[in-house]
Every structure is written in C-alpha cells, then in structure tokens.
Write a structure and sequence with these properties.
It contains ten helices and eleven strands. With 282 residues, it is an alpha/beta fold. α3 packs antiparallel against α4 and α8 packs across α9.
Length: 282
C-alpha cells in the first residue's frame, strides 16, 4: 500500500507523485502557456517537459516531499492569488486563509510568508497524504486532518470560525464547491472571501457561478471565464492569465495589492488584448 501519494493538476495535466517520485503524467489539455514559455523558454507543453518542471519543484523546494519549504518572502509572480492574500493579511484586511498544502491537506494560515510559501508554489491539489515533517512546519494546531490530510474547505471555514477569526479567505478550485460554500449559513459577524483558481476547462454554468459568488477569479486557460468577465464588465488585472474581480470586495483586495507593488489599478477595459493568451482556451 502506498502511503505517500499526491495528485496535482499543473499546466493542464494531472500528475501523480508517489514516495517522492513522479509515477504518472497525463497529456496536457493545452498546447501553450505564455507564462511557462516566458519563464522556461518552452513553447509547446508536453508530458516530458511538465514532468521536468515538477521534478525541478521537488528538487529545489521539496514539493510533495518531507523537505517541502513552506515559508517564502519573495514572490514568484507579481500578481497571483497568494500574493493578493499575503498583502491583505499584512494590511489586516484578512485575518486568516483557509487553504491546502501538499503533505498537509486543509490548513489555516495567518502569516503572510506562510500563505506565500504554501500558495505560491502549490498547483491544483486534487489529493494528498500526510507528511509529518511538513505538518510540523506549518503548525499541527493549524491542520484540520493531520492523520489523513483530507481536503475539505467547508470544514476549514468552520474551524476558522471556531477559532475566532472574522475576516476569512478561502482558496478554491473552480467547481460546484463554490456555490456550496457561498450558500453556507454563517454568523453575521463573519466576512468570507472566495478566491477561485484553476478554472481551465470549467463549464459555462460554473464560470457564471464563479462570478456570482466569487470575489477573485483567475482566468487560467478558460474561455468561459473570459466570456463571462466581459459580459459582466468585471474589473481585472493582467493580459496573459488575468485576475478578475467578481465583486467590489474582490476588486478592493486586488487593488490593495496593486497599490503595494506600484502597479496600475484594476481596469474594466474590454475587449481584452488576445495576443498573449494560452492556447487553446478551454
């Protein structure tokens, strides 16, 4: 029985890592990611170069291994979900982030360097198994399921409320869980922010739900997210993988970060420039 197993979604591929080794990589759904091309000089995504990239992450910061680094001051990109969250924690606009980490599962993060270290390097986590060394680094008291490393953002939100947090952000993958969380009955004193990533390939219906319920949504390689964003004249930042504000609260979070790094604030200029998009959009 394999006890050390992690399944992630990265670069539109599903990757399985068992006992510190990659055991499966599926064919990527998209052919080109401009951000990946800019960072690595690779124009066409293949199973081979995706495997090489994940091996790089495993070697250099312990991704999906017991050597996983969980604290980081520097950012990998200027504007991403973890960067937005880290800034707003520092500004005390958010008290805690309910997120997920390989080797840990669902956890609470209230330190910006942990939010950045965990979130800035994690891809779409499908499932994971506990690695005690990583759980110790993030603090066992912040981990919901240290024995199983289950992924359960709803339980995470409830745990954050029980611990007395008021301004709670939760990171989610684009899917039915977005509506389910948005419809939770919460105390009036709780402000819950929904930040949605990994939207490539989601349906039109789910894209609409992302904008109906979400505060921040990443465009990834989703054609439906871009369509709905334009229809709703949503504020956004970025040309390649745009970050969209699904609400005025989301726009405030986004602009707080843009101010901090000296970038132009979010805009609602449409149609967007399509010169730098991932190919194909799904």
């Amino acid at each position: 029985m394999i006890k050390d197993k992690h399944v992630i979604e990265a670069l539109s591929s599903k990757i399985t890592i068992e006992n510190g080794k990659i055991t499966d990589v599926t064919e990527p759904k998209i052919e080109n990611c401009p951000i990946f091309e800019k960072g690595h000089g690779i124009k066409k995504l293949t199973k081979e170069n995706i495997k090489k990239n994940i091996n790089f992450r495993m070697k250099h910061f312990g991704y999906c291994t017991k050597k996983r680094e969980v604290s980081q001051e520097d950012t990998l990109v200027a504007v991403g979900i973890s960067e937005i969250l880290s800034t707003n924690i520092r500004l005390k606009k958010i008290d805690v982030v309910v997120g997920a980490c390989d080797g840990v599962g669902t956890l609470l993060m209230e330190k910006p360097e942990i939010v950045q270290g965990v979130g800035g390097r994690v891809s779409g986590l499908v499932s994971t198994s506990p690695l005690p060394e990583i759980i110790e680094k993030v603090g066992k008291e912040n981990v919901l399921f240290p024995e199983t490393a289950n992924l359960d953002p709803i339980a995470g939100i409830k745990f954050a409320i029980e611990k007395g947090y008021k301004n709670i952000a939760v990171t989610l993958l684009g899917g039915p869980i977005v509506k389910e969380i948005a419809e939770m009955k919460l105390p009036e004193s709780i402000n819950l922010f929904l930040l949605i990533a990994h939207t490539t390939g989601i349906s039109r219906e789910l894209a609409e739900e992302c904008f109906e319920y979400g505060d921040i949504i990443t465009g990834c390689a989703s054609k439906h997210i871009r369509e709905v964003a334009q229809e709703q004249n949503a504020y956004y930042y970025g040309k390649i993988v745009s970050i969209y504000a699904g609400s005025e609260r989301g726009r405030e979070l986004l602009d707080n970060h843009l101010k901090e790094i000296g970038e132009d604030l979010s805009t609602a200029n449409y149609p967007q420039d399509k010169s730098y998009l991932p190919k194909p959009l799904l």
